[in-house]
Structure formats: C-alpha cells, structure tokens
Amino acid sequence: MAEEFTEKIDEALAAWTVLDELPAEINGYLLSKNREKHEAQYDFFRYDRADAHRSVVGFYDAATTSYKLRVEIGVVSFALPSFIHGDLETFGRELQRYLPRVMADMHADALETQELLPVRESIAAWEYGQELPEQLEGYELFVRPSAPAQMTNGSFLIIDYVDFARANDVGIYYNCYRNEFFGEYHAAGMPYVSYDFDASDLEELEQRLRLNLARYLRRAAAEADAGKNV
Questions:
Q1: What are the extents of the domains in the chain?
Q2: 65-74, 104-113, 221-230: which has the minimum mean pLDDT?
Q3: What is the Cα–Cα distance from 31 to 16, expressed in whole angstroms?
Q4: What is the bridge-based pairing of β-strands 36-38 and 25-26?
Q5: What does the DSSP 8-state code read for residue 112?
Q6: d(CA 91, CA 19)
Q7: Segment 79-130, tens digit of pLDDT
Q8: Quick one: CA dihedral 119, 124, 128, 130, positive or negative?
C-alpha cells in the first residue's frame, strides 16, 4: 500500500513543472529535492537553513490525500493550515506566491504581533526569562522569551531548550486564544504533552519552571535513551 501511494505521487510530480522552477535558495534556505517517506507522509522537497535550525518541507499526506507544507523550528514541526491542498496545481500556485513569505515569517519579531499584545510588556520585563542559562542539563537555550517563535493555532514558543543531536527538547508555549502558558517536550523527536507547566501568568509559570524545568530536561534525555535500548 505504501509503495502504491508513493509511486502515484512520483508520477504526479514527474509532470509537475513547479518542482523544476523552485529557486535553489530563498532567504538563506537551501533547496533539496530528496524524497523521504515517514509512515503516511511523503516529503518531496525541503528548504533548510542549518544555522538557524529551521526548515520548510513540501510533502504529501496520504491520510488526508492532500499536499502540505511543514515548518520545522528546532525539533518542533507543524503543517501550515494555509498550505493544505488536494491538488498539485493549487499547491504549486500558492507556493510560487507565498513561499518566500513563509521563510520571512519564521524570522519575524513575534513579540510585535497582535496576538502577543496581552503579554508583550510582561514578557519583555520578565527578569527570570532574561536570566535563563544558555546551557542547562546538556541542552542549549534555542528560543528565549525576548524572541518567541510563532507556531500555529494561536501558540507561540517562548522558551525552548534543545539537544539537537538527540532531537530532545523542553518547550514552553503561550496560547493567545486561551491566554495561558503550557509545556511540551520531545524525546528522540517524539512529542509529549506535560501539564506540569500549565500557568495563567508569568509568576505562576516561573514557579513551575523552577520546580520542573531541569527535571523534564533529564526526563526527555532518559526517555530518548530508553527508546534506543528497546
């Protein structure tokens, strides 16, 4: 079944001229046309900016029979809702029109967005956030409160400690629709939810970070190592 859907997509891509017209570089992102299957997803091009640990990936999703664009920031990834199309023609037209903007938006000042207005001043003045260590438990501070990364569905990544070599991280998010903070972590690239960082304001979040951040960094590393030994 897997071979059948990839063969079908390969046939469609062979006649898709947009793939040949994609620029080799956009805003420092370098193009690769290597194809790779991940279960029901089939990547057929990607733009990588290694120095920023960011990527943009075009793929076919067999589960929804649609072509999509995935954004990768560190070890966090998500499909852009505005790039979900059932046919290559529409997908290609949107790519040609908006792809450079996607890269630019990944480096925009998220604190200046309307969505972060309710917490902008408090985040900027948050002493704990300003004093986060650059290295902790073998992880490096990748995303800091002064430069959040916009995700999807109203969420912003405001703190992210990452072990890039092992694809582990602990991330703290703010959701503008719920007006609350929450945490997630990755162990060997697999995402997990944690409720130990849920907070309604920065004061509560700081308390939870002091209690749980280092513990979760160790937990992600331990779970990644345990998975390798299975």
A1: 2-105, 110-228
A2: 221-230
A3: 17
A4: unpaired
A5: G
A6: 11
A7: 999 999 999 999 999 999 999 999 999 999 999 999 999 899 999 999 999 9
A8: positive
